[in-house]
Specification:
The chain is α+β, with helices and mostly antiparallel strands. It has one domain. It has two helices and six strands. The strands form two sheets. Strands 3-4-5-6 form a four-stranded antiparallel β-sheet. The N and C termini lie far apart (28 Å). The mean pLDDT is 94.
Length: 94
């Protein structure tokens, strides 16, 4: 397990969620080191249209011309749901 500081509190990345990310989004493996900065100071943020407690934190990766998107369930014990690389931001950027 890992914890990351963020505007939403200390965010947990469980071993199970990390395995999920690496299995379904293997391209994220080389960007795990960016999680610290992306969660501490996201360049962009957007809320899920399906769950108001879910926020997507983004950081642009110029070399890949993609955004690292980290999906966080906020609340009393925030945790990472998943992470992936995206070509563009979700429309409802905060």
């Amino acid at each position: 397990m890992q914890h990351f500081r963020s505007p939403y509190g200390s965010i947990l990345l469980t071993d199970e969620r990390k395995r999920h990310i690496l299995e379904f989004h293997p391209e994220v493996r080389m960007y795990l080191r960016y999680f610290v900065d992306t969660l501490a100071k996201p360049e962009y943020e957007s809320r899920s249209v399906h769950d108001a407690a879910v926020v997507i934190c983004y950081q642009y990766i110029p070399r890949r011309k993609r955004y690292l998107a980290i999906v966080v369930k906020t609340g009393t014990r925030p945790f990472i749901l998943t992470a992936y690389l995206a070509r563009k931001l979700k429309q409802d950027t905060l």
